[in-house]
Write a sequence for this structure.
């Protein structure tokens, strides 16, 4: 397949952003020998569907939630010739009750508590709890202690709680059934992280077993349904490692951790009727799903329905994790219907309900691989409705294609062969492009960023505008929805790989700013965000105001999309937005030259007066507005803005020059102050967009190329630390997105140096979290943020056309 070059003739009509050959060609991996991913994406699909492995080996730790690291248990095991090996997740803990004497856990009592006991023993209370399905913990009061009744008392509880000292109480907590009951682990041979897939290889006895986790972020109309389905896939294959034939069985399950915010959250579940040709298990969800107001600003929520479906060669079921895992570990093969709950509810700590799948295969002598189960497992999420947009409940886009979540999950299974072929082709294309532009290091860094960035988004359908929107969550740094200055650093990936999807991210902001909601937007500048995800509900006075920052971004991105999505004959941007765009152009004319005391996208630094990097963005934004005016046929206004932009650059240069670089602020008394002028990348992006190949020299409009080259030389010669260039003169921390921006406009040796530093950071950082974009450039320690969309900025070199 071939990804687009930034040239108008190759980018029309919309949604033809990727032309993919569906040949199953091999991609090149990020997790190759010599590289240790800080965290590995497994089921990384959407803001509230994000499962990762934060360990060197898939069996070292319980899988975790991408946004905050909370335990999110999925497990897998393989049995080879009768011997069982864990391949995912930790070994189960003790089967013994946790009992503490002289302590109490008040609250969470089941109805009718306490009950009297004829025996003055806590064991009798535990026996009652063990026989009561809804009981997760018990508290026991000995007869006569502290003036209590003469008969012993027992409280059965739905969950455990705060532990308090009480000499007249004892309590016990039921074993959770967590982990897999097999201490023997398969030997992990490798883990490879590709843009859309993660591939693990294990040696278990005489067999090699491969696990492939796939999330089909494949742009283009041909794969639109696959992208819309909120499903990630698991494929399992096995081959002989010693030349002999072997019997191989595989087991997988997922817990309700994926749809609850706590292990103590009560869960409802049920089974689906079986469909022909597909093994569908059923569903799990929180018994009392949270409201949208309760979900606002949360990393993990009790909402959504988890669905498992698999190819017909798999057996599937809904069961107690403790029971069904034990069945497989003991050497038996679970079958659909064994230990099944037809419907009901429970607390995960009580019986740990799981959706499971199991299959077996006879691996032939020799080295040929065999598919376990003859197909795939789909782990799907139904988050419906998906977003509350100023009172309008927007449903996930897949609901326009499928009648139910069961149908959606089953389609993920039946259409998987073609989708997997597209993912393989896309991975080969992207890794090849990364390799050609920046060698092994760029290939590795880009592969680590691709899925993470797209998984911050989810597609929805807006019936009011009859259009598909792509909603974005600002993960781990405020949880805002549709944050403009999060879309901005990720835009190199979105605009390069799928400009139509990039526009679908901007429409909700454009509609809001254009008074397409019941909230009157009355600001002269562009909005920062819509509200706390998954809700858009704020008024203009509640914005985190970044007037120049957001206005310049919107104009620059619209100018880019005008070239990518337009046909060269008429303006692409819908006419209803023209007055809004004109308002923004007029605002930059008044404010871009000297921004004043304003926040920029690096809001964690606080407002910086007369910020020269922010001014540069505003000035480049004026040039972008001029391009939009030319697209509308208004050459007079376009020429006026172009002349003003050049004039503003002269003021800029005269008021921040300091010996061998340009300062952090205009006329800064701290002569040696400096900042990373990452916004210069935007000038090059607009200059390159109409070229069939990237310019070998820096662009000259509106900033002279000599200004930009001076800055790049200063970073390379004076500020380059082990893991990168700091953000500014007052700290040693770097931002991976902005570091990639300045690397993208360096010459080839400079860019290779940037990517080598980023790869080293990912390999060395001691914090095992999904790609952090904020880290110390000297120590490699994470400073904050994890699993954010902004790492899409590492695609800036490809965004420029390399």
């Amino acid at each position: 397949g071939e990804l687009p070059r930034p040239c108008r003739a190759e980018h029309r009509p919309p949604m033809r952003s990727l032309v993919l050959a569906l040949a199953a060609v091999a991609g090149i991996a990020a997790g190759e020998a010599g590289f240790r991913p800080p965290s590995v994406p497994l089921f990384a699909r959407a803001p509230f569907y994000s499962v990762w492995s934060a360990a060197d080996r898939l069996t070292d730790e319980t899988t975790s939630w991408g946004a905050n690291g909370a335990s999110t248990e999925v497990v897998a095991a393989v049995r080879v010739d009768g011997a069982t090996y864990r391949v995912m997740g930790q070994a189960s803990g003790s089967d013994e009750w946790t009992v503490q004497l002289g302590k109490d856990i008040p609250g969470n009592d089941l109805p009718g508590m306490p009950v009297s006991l004829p025996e003055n023993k806590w064991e009798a209370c535990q026996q009652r709890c063990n026989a009561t399905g809804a009981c997760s913990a018990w508290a026991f009061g000995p007869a006569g202690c502290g003036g209590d009744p003469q008969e012993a008392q027992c409280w059965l509880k739905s969950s455990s709680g705060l532990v308090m000292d009480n000499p007249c109480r004892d309590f016990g907590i039921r074993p959770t059934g967590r982990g897999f009951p097999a201490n023997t682990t398969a030997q992990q041979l490798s883990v490879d992280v590709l843009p859309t897939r993660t591939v693990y290889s294990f040696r278990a006895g005489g067999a090699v077993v491969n696990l492939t986790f796939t999330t089909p972020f494949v742009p283009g109309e041909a794969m639109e349904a696959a992208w819309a389905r909120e499903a990630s896939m698991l494929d399992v294959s096995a081959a002989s490692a010693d030349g002999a034939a072997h019997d191989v069985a595989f087991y997988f399950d997922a817990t309700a951790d994926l749809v609850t915010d706590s292990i103590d959250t009560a869960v409802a579940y049920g089974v689906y009727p079986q469909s022909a040709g597909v093994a569908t298990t059923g569903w799990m969800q929180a018994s009392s799903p949270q409201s949208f107001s309760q979900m606002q600003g949360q990393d993990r929520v009790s909402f959504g329905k988890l669905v498992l479906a698999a190819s017909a060669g798999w057996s599937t079921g809904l069961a107690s994790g403790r029971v069904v895992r034990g069945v497989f570990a003991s050497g038996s093969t679970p079958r659909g219907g064994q230990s099944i709950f037809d419907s009901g509810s429970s607390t995960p700590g009580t019986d740990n309900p799981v959706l499971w799948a199991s299959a077996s295969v006879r691996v032939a002598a020799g080295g040929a691989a065999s598919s376990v189960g003859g197909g795939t497992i789909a782990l799907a999420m139904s988050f419906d409705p998906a977003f509350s947009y100023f009172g309008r409940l927007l449903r996930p886009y897949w609901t326009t294609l499928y009648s139910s979540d069961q149908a959606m999950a089953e389609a993920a299974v039946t259409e998987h062969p073609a989708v997997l072929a597209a993912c393989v082709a896309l991975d080969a294309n992207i890794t090849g492009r990364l390799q050609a532009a920046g060698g092994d290091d760029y290939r590795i860094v880009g592969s680590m960023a691709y899925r993470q960035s797209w998984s911050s988004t989810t597609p929805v359908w807006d019936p009011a505008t009859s259009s598909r929107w792509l909603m974005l969550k600002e993960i781990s740094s405020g949880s805002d929805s549709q944050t403009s200055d999060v879309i901005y650093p990720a835009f190199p990936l979105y605009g390069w790989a799928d400009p139509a999807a990039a526009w679908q991210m901007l429409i909700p902001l454009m509609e809001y700013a254009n008074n397409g909601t019941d909230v009157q937007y009355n600001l002269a500048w562009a909005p920062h965000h819509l509200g706390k995800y998954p809700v858009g509900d704020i008024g203009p006075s509640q914005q985190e105001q970044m007037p120049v920052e957001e206005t310049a971004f919107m104009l620059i991105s619209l100018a880019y999309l005008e070239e990518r999505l337009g046909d060269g004959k008429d303006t692409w941007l819908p006419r209803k937005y023209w007055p809004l765009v004109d308002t923004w152009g007029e605002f930059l004319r008044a404010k871009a030259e000297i921004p004043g005391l304003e926040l920029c996208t690096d809001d964690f630094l606080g407002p910086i007066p007369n910020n020269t990097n922010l001014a540069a963005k505003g000035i480049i934004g004026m040039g972008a507005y001029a391009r939009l005016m030319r697209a509308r046929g208004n050459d007079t206004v376009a020429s006026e803005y172009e002349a003003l932009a050049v004039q503003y650059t002269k003021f800029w240069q005269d008021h921040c020059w300091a010996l061998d670089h340009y300062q952090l602020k205009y006329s800064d008394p701290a002569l040696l102050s400096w900042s990373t002028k990452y916004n210069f990348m935007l000038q090059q992006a607009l200059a390159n967009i109409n070229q069939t190949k990237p310019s070998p020299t820096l662009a000259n409009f509106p900033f002279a190329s000599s200004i930009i080259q001076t800055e790049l030389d200063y970073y390379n010669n004076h500020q380059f630390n082990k893991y990168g260039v700091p953000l500014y003169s007052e700290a040693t921390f770097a931002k991976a997105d902005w570091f990639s921006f300045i690397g993208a406009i360096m010459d080839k040796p400079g860019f290779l140096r940037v990517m080598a530093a980023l790869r080293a950071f990912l390999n060395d950082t001691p914090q095992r979290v999904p790609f952090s974009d904020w880290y110390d450039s000297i120590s490699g320690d994470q400073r904050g943020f994890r699993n954010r969309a902004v790492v899409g900025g590492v695609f800036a070199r490809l965004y420029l056309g390399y």
Summary: The CA atoms of residues 231 and 380 lie 4 Å apart.
